[in-house]
Amino acid sequence: MAEERPLRPRLRDGRWGAASDRACGHHPYVANKYPQGSERRRAKMSRQLTQDVLTRHDRRPRDENHRISRFMREVHSLFLDQVPLKAWNRVLSVECGDGWAAEEAWRRMGRGYVCGVDISGQMTELAARLRGVDGQLEFRTWDGGILPFSDGAFDTVIASFAFHRYADPLATLREMHRVLRPGGHVYLLEPDRKSFAGLFSLWDYYFRLTNPGHVRYYATATLLQLLGQAEFSAAREIHRYDRILSGGKLLASAAFLQARRNGGQG
Known about the structure:
Blueprint lengths: L17 H8 L2 H6 L5 H19 L12 H12 L8 E5 L5 H10 L3 E6 L2 H11 L5 E5 L12 E7 L8 H11 E12 L8 H11 L9 H10 L2 E13 L5 E12 L5
Parallel strand pairs: 1-2, 1-4, 2-3, 4-5
Antiparallel strand pairs: 5-7, 6-7
């Protein structure tokens, strides 16, 4: 059996941080639901809640069929509902993971072309094996710097939970702008800072310790500002997805963002 990773991040000297103690032993949802519970019981419940959050938000496929989680399929489906996908369009899916969202976009178009790119060669190989269709649904690895496409190659660019990987998100947005045709649109799906029942900063810190590819999460307002700096126009939030726990606490909040490249017909 694989060794289970600790649910709380350790500091460099091996001690548990005060913030992580609060998350695992004094999570506000657990404290409210079990006000009379023992510290041990509350800590156990908080660890279970923490594991649930990590399981639902981890983009890596976990089961033997390499399927993304039920939560991720739900939010990706809602995300694609906001994207006008027309027949014969060319769509680029950035950080496509195992390709589920790219394949779903391709199916919704009926006829068209979708290319998924991901920093992970392992993920693009998996996506190509599971879903690839020559000349219609393809997957490539990229270096996170220059998108391997010519200027104006796509009608639409979509990216979901991608920007936490980028130390220079503005450079990535400029690349998305470059490969879009004039009048094309970019659609982003990104976690909002209200996520994780108010412990967003803690999870950001946790993922920095446990996920080598994680840089940081960016606030929705920051991404909207960066879209403007990348010469997109009409950058705005078009939808929001909130997942609520039974106790009324907000577990996850995702913002759906849209922007347009100037010129052409939108």
